[in-house]
Specification:
- This protein is of the alpha+beta class.
- It has one domain.
- The chain has five helices and seven strands; from the N terminus they run ββαβββββαααα.
- The chain has a five-stranded mixed sheet. A two-stranded antiparallel sheet has the order 1-7.
- The protein is elongated.
- It holds the Pfam family YceD.
């Protein structure tokens, strides 16, 4: 499950700033069993700041994922941008309970960022996916045509039509 290309071997790195770049496509999401994207083209930039006692990892991603519209099921490219700041400290045992602080055992020599990248990118996609053609009216779709066809033709009036039986019952409440 862990992608080896997302392992960062920090033990051989000097203290300071180190840059890593990744190209992410749909095979990355398939390895996690996530199939909501039809395609993905994402560039991930990782900056690792190594010091003697800890590391800071800054992840920045931008690109597009091809998803299906929630209203019409038409596929379209959704632009996404995501960033994540992670602090890596060293301790007795592995602990990733905190979202922003990762504790690695002292004997670790590499860091796998695949899970963090996956969560950051999935959360960068809007919950409600609407094709941009719907908003500007340029999308031609059978589903949209069918929705327009099934739209209510006339507006209902909000006049209260009283039922005389209820009026008589209401009088019982006020006649006390």
């Amino acid at each position: 499950m862990k992608q080896k290309e997302f392992n960062i071997p920090f033990s051989g790195l000097k203290q300071g700033k180190h840059d890593f770049n990744y190209q992410i496509d749909n095979t990355f999401f398939d390895s996690f069993g996530y199939d909501e994207f039809n395609a993905a083209a994402i560039i991930l930039d990782v900056v690792l700041h190594k010091s003697s006692t800890m590391m800071e990892v800054d992840l920045e991603a931008s690109g597009t994922v091809n998803v299906n519209c929630d209203m019409t099921s038409e596929p379209y490219d959704q632009a996404i941008n995501g960033d994540l700041h992670l602090v890596v400290k060293f301790g007795e045992e592995y602990n990733d309970e905190n979202d922003e602080i990762l504790i690695l055992p002292h004997n670790e020599h590499q860091l796998n960022i695949a899970q963090y990248v996956y969560e950051m990118l999935v959360l960068a996609v809007p919950q409600k996916r609407i094709h941009p053609g719907i908003e500007d009216g340029t999308l031609e779709s059978e589903v949209l045509d069918r929705l327009k066809e099934l739209q209510p033709k006339e507006k209902r009036s909000n006049k209260e039509e009283n039922d005389p039986r209820w009026d008589e019952l209401k009088k019982l409440l006020t006649d006390k």
